[in-house]
Automatic annotation (TrEMBL):
Residues 269-361 form the OmpR/PhoB-type domain. This is Uroporphyrinogen-III synthase. SUPFAM superfamilies: C-terminal effector domain of the bipartite response regulators, HemD-like. It comes from Catenuloplanes indicus. PANTHER family: BLR5956 PROTEIN. Keywords: DNA-binding, Lyase.
Length: 362
């Protein structure tokens, strides 16, 4: 057990590997908000997949572009179910195979096939550049799709003279229950999560679609206060297009993304010396002299406001603006009382008679 992320709240938008990611973060002390942005829907009985498979058998591809492990496994399993497993494997074995990442490579090798090349960046753009240099004019390319169509890749290859067979193995669909995703949108805009993790580029678009009119507010929060963590550069690309700063590991792995969060989040915490104590503000908790003190949202909001200008007196009216709409000055007094009780350390929150409250900095 580790407490490197204790006091921080992290949103998880993944679906298929959400439990694994949540467990990695919880073991380091984080509080998790599970909000799958999308779900994968296999289409083994889909007429498009069957037609693409037939096209590959009738006109064997010169090049195979394997985008995902789950997609390659799903394609081969579907072909097996149609009695076409061996013919498909034989056709794929004769092609120049590019694996976009290690999971796709693993699925290829598990099927007894061999890949010839893989990009460092795991990006579609790097694969396209490599194939153009390899030479695609007059050649047939079987492109296993990563959920949705990738027109930027297929168009670039067709423009270079290739014939592209798109192989749709699964599709992204909205989550069965959209409520957790809408709640995550509210938490992001309210700055009540410290970070949000993304494991696929379509999840970014799904989150912004779910936000609707609040999409700009979500992007503003991600640009300034809520850390966006992506598993790799492909996932990060849509956020970077919106000028959102992103952290992602050098290698696209869940464990590596978690380690990046462990390195980054504590550095963003505010540290102050108050009334002879060391006070650190984390997402939903304060740390006083090394001891974690979880706080409810209202006391935490008051503490953040006071900590933003340590030493300065804030009136009840000023602190009221940090609380939910409909609160009154009595709610401020209650929040301050709960804050003092939660901190359990006298003198950290000081009353200045007839003026308000402050944190007395050393």
């Amino acid at each position: 057990m580790s407490d490197e992320l204790s006091g921080f709240t992290i949103g998880v938008t993944a679906d298929r590997r959400r439990d694994e990611l949540a467990s990695l973060l919880e073991r380091r002390g984080a509080r998790i908000v599970l909000a799958p942005a999308l779900r994968i829907v296999p289409i083994a009985d889909d007429t498009e997949l069957r037609a693409a498979t037939r096209a590959c058998l009738e006109n064997p591809p010169d090049i195979v572009m394997a985008n995902t492990g789950i997609g390659m496994r799903g394609w081969l399993e579907a072909a097996e179910g149609w009695g076409l497993g061996e013919p498909l494997r034989a056709v794929l074995a004769g092609a120049y195979t590019v694996a976009r990442g290690p999971k796709a490579r693993g699925a290829i090798r598990a099927a007894g096939l061999q890949d010839q090349w893989s990009p460092d960046s795991e990006s579609c753009e790097e694969v396209v550049e490599h194939l153009k240099a390899y030479g695609v004019a007059g050649k047939t390319i079987a492109m296993q799709l990563h959920g949705d169509r990738q027109p930027e890749c297929s168009d670039a290859l067709e423009a270079a003279g290739a014939r592209v067979i798109e192989v749709p193995v699964y599709r992204w669909a909205p989550p069965t229950d959209p409520a957790p995703l809408h709640r995550l949108v509210d938490l992001i805009t309210g700055r009540l999560v410290d970070a949000v993790t993304f494991t696929s580029a379509p999840a970014v678009s799904a989150l912004l679609r779910a936000a609707g009119p609040s999409a700009d507010s979500v992007l503003d929060a991600l640009r300034n206060d809520v850390l966006a963590a992506c598993v790799g550069p492909v996932t990060a690309a849509p956020l970077r297009r919106h000028n959102v700063p992103v952290i992602s590991p050098a290698r696209a792995r869940l464990g590596a993304m978690v380690r990046t969060l462990v390195d980054e989040l504590p550095q963003r915490a505010l540290n102050l010396k108050i009334a002879g104590h060391v006070l650190t503000l984390r997402g939903h908790a304060a740390v006083i002299d090394g001891e974690l003190k979880p706080l409810a949202p209202a006391p935490m909001a008051v503490l953040r406001a006071l900590a933003a200008t340590p030493g300065r007196v804030l009136s009840r009216a000023a602190l009221l603006r940090t609380l939910p709409r409909g609160a009154d000055e009595h709610a401020v007094e209650m929040a301050v009382a709960r804050l003092r009780a939660g901190l359990g350390t006298p003198g950290v929150v000081q009353t200045v008679v007839k003026r308000g409250y402050r944190l007395p900095v050393d």
